[in-house]
Amino acid sequence: MNAQDQPFATAADGRLQAIAEAFAIATPVRGLAPLGSGNVNDTYRVEAADGSLYVLQRLNTGVFPRPELVMGNIATLGEHLDGRPAPRLRSGRSWELPRLVPARSGGASWLERDGQAWRLLTHIDDSVSHDTVQDSGHAREVGRALGRFHLLIHDLPCAQLADTLEGFHVTPRYLAAYQELLDSRGLDQACEASRFCRAFVAEREALVPALEQARLQGRLQERPIHGDPKVNNVLLDRRSGEAVALVDLDTVKPGLVQYDIGDCLRSGCNPAGEEAADLNAVSFDLALCRPMLGGYLELARPFLTPADLELIPTAVRLISFELGLRFFSDHLAGNRYFKCRHPRHNLERALVQFRLVQSIEAQQGAIEALVEELG
Fold it and tell me: Topology of domain 136-374, per CATH?
């Protein structure tokens, strides 16, 4: 069952219902249901008595210590798009951006309850999402979703956005933090998987500064980015299959579009997904990369530079490595960032990403040729 199709609870949790009703919705809450499979925030689909739907989220303040900056960025995006017509899709439906619902008292964009930050967002109706790409048509729509998002916000001045996660998607910082963890905590030498991960990282340290060096050299410029354009953050129209929204806007900030492009392809072109139990099933699928990258460039090509295109293959490899490094680091730190189902969960996730890196490396020439062909 798709996460968005989960039935509502017959009786909403009293605490959650009270929080949802503290926002400016027209009628009382009739039901609540868990929504999505995110690794950071807690998310619920809310149904009001009049049938209206909303999204209630508890923002993880351990990850986002300043919720007001996150909400400010989401509001800034909305204001930027309000000045232009909503893009009309082939089906006739409009592209949508989730909007913040203000609180009843004072009109704030978020609320604090028992030391936790909560917000209510508009719901993208008649939409579905998937954790992995279903076919080539879905792949193209995922690419188009990111391309449309970048096209809509590329002219938003970065100075208007707060950096809600300093160092996010700056790979050299993740490597430095990882090395500090090794120095302070050491490594379980009895764990073969941990020894493998340590050696894997050490062999690829030269890759780490590739994009940041290009930025410092002036070859790449900072633009607004989404920060987490995974497959399951793309919502598709339930009937036409067209991408209608790119959600989970917490990580919107100034950055390099290459991190977004690389993350989109990393997430979408591994049919086994991030939670693959069989490492032998993990691979980078060029047959999915072609429509996904093609869909992205169909919309985003007008504002991309030759250097932007040239560094896409590097970004695909680097962002997969970066996520593996982050998973492994979180494992070493005691699983503080990503939600886990068991103590080795982040270690297993790291192994999946590192296997994906190996698959990308084996096809690097073909990926470069594809970018050149499509660009």
Answer: Aminoglycoside 3'-phosphotransferase; Chain: A, domain 2 (3.90.1200)
